[in-house]
Amino acid sequence: MDTLSQAFIQPLLTNLDWDHMDFGRNVFLRSATQKFKPRDEISQFPSHHASLYSICQFFIVEATARSLFGNLLHDIEPDIVNLMLRFNEHVWMIVFNYPSFFAGPVAEPRQKIMVALKKLVQAPEEDRSQLCWAIRNITAAMDIVDIDMESRASMMLMSFWAAISNEYNASFWVLAYLLHDISVLEKVKQETEAAWFDESLDLKYLSANCPLLDSTFHEVLRVKNGAGALRVVTKDTIIGQKHLKAGNSVMIPFRQLHVNKNVWGPKVAEFDSYRFLSKKSLARHPSFRPFGGGLTYCPGRMLAREQVFGFVAILLHRFKIKLAQMPGGQSFPRFNDLTPSLGISGPIKGMDVIISIEKAN
Fold first, then answer.
1. Which candidate, 358, 346, 361, places its Cα nearest to that of 53?
2. Quick one: 330 exposed, middle or buried, by C-beta within 10 A (0-12, 13-18, 19+)?
């Protein structure tokens, strides 16, 4: 896991800097054209305004792709980051067996990604040497059992999707809440700054010595999780007034556990960055299931945490960020509970946090 964490952090350390922020500005301008100002007045916006959600999406998916596949996948498909973002936005259509004639939004990016991944698994051995050890082991196993090319690409896509499906949404919500609570933001900055030594980020120190960031992260997992578990009823069972018949499937939404007042108290609907700090046992409570449970307990939960922490630490270290002053102000983005979710959900489409961002001294 340490190797994967370092492989993820390195592209962030290389690319998450002032010279690569233009795209965030461009995304913001497209959004502003539609929501805030007539097109001919866009130039009046300060050059240091940017889209927080776009920054989280781009840099985290970019870093994940390079940590798994080196530069090979980017060489094969230069638009891979955008394709994966489009795929992840609509992947619920595949999981929930959405009728194919309605599933165009996910079919197009999936087809292009599959083409790229087929080329990747067929690349010469010397080119595949830049893949991370986990992906190399998967490709080696596929060679041994000689599975068909479609299945190989599908397994690669599943691994890639699992690695990016939650991290950028979790990072966005952590930063959104920090930006709306300056006192917490300043304390988290102090925690994360202590993990920097001569411009080198110590991930182990960061993971073990940022209690308020950790509490904020856990609270995001509590309130922004739309995932659930699917279980097959093995024998007729009665729960309350419901008769569950053997052979049927049951969908168990974890979110209902996360809003139980008997566990979380009367202010269960409020976001509290200190909740898991004040009562650390809550992170181990049976009613806290952000990563599933049993056989479906997410094996990458610790890696995901380190990735979010690393991204937040780099962003706060290299930039001065605050809420941008926008025409009409900025309301806190609404959680997307309208689209079926498989994990941490993002904001409603079209909602964002526009930030004022400057290079740190």
1. 346
2. middle
Spell out the domains of the chain, with CATH numbers in brackets. Answer: 2-359 (1.10.630.10)
Short-list 21, 78, 29, CA closest to 55: 21
Rounded mean pLDDT, 234-255: 87
Residue 284 burial class via C-beta count within 10 angstroms: exposed 0-12, middle 13-18, buried 19 and up: exposed
* 56 in a known ligand binding site: no
Helix (H, G, I), strand (E, B) or coil at 323: strand
Kindly give, in sequence order, each residue whose CB lies less than 8 Å from that of residue 158, ignoring residues fewer than 6 positions away: none
Distance of alpha carbon 104 from alpha carbon 88, whole angstroms: 13
Please determine, for residue 22, whether its predicted confidence score (pLDDT) is greater than 70.
no
> Distance between CA 273 and CA 333 in Å, rounded?
17
> What is the DSSP secondary structure assignment for residue 44, as one 8-state letter?
G
In terms of Cα–Cα distance, which of 124, 119, 117 is closest to 68? 117
CB 217 within 8 A of CB 172: no
